[in-house]
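Lab meeting prep.
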Amino acid sequence: MCKATAEPTVNWYVLHVRGGRELEIADEINFGGVSGIRALCPTEIVDEWRKGHWKSLSRVIFPGYVFCEVQGSSTSSLYYAVKRLPGVIRWLGHGDGIACTAVPPEEMAVVLLLGNDGKPFGPSYGYKTGGRTHITSGPLCGMEHLITAVYPHRRRARLSIPLMGDIKEIEVTARLGGQQSSEAKPAAE
């Protein structure tokens, strides 16, 4: 049975789920009659090179995880309602059988930005200069400190995101050119 570990009336928790079932489980929570909880599964539009062309595909950016917003201070009844859903493995932070650990607000702020209110987000644009990455537009604006690597030829950036006492490495679409002025607009493709 889970109880909120913080006083606020809204807490975010993380479900560990079977890979490939994230969107299905989030939909089941949101539209399947589990009241008092809202699920978020951040997705992005990914640029992938396939058969000699760039294609845009939708992809889950935190594979194996679904984020749950819980209203109120107790999750004990919701714990069992969600745990019985096919594909749900466990609530993260549920090690002692008594309490679930809520995601700290500063960590959840990054997830919510990437969550884009449940809609897939598009690419970020920017440039590199002097060994630093500068994002001029897109969801990574202001998150340059989380970027640990850039792969321009793959149109990807690697982020290190703190989550529940661990660091999650994810890759997202980023179209970065060479040295440019910060006023430069991305070229249409």
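Slide two material, second protein:
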Amino acid sequence: MVRPLLLCCLLFAWVARADTIHVYCDDWPGFCQADGHGVYLDIVRAIYEPAGHAVHPHLVPYKRALAVVAQKGGDMAMG
């Protein structure tokens, strides 16, 4: 009984997987830049792109990044 239930949960988690991760950060030279490079964005890409996710950075002021993520409009805020 436990194995079919576990299998159903794992299949549901696989289907619900996000393809694009929306990362919100401020324009900080060297960390998050307008060209999509920087230490923070490189770390996020190194973690999530091998798992099949695309990283889409959004450059907004830091307080707005926190507000968007708090309202479940984005996946993560870098800071």
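Talking points for slide two:
The first strand starts at residue 20 and ends at 25.
Residues 4-9 have pLDDT under 50 and may be disordered.
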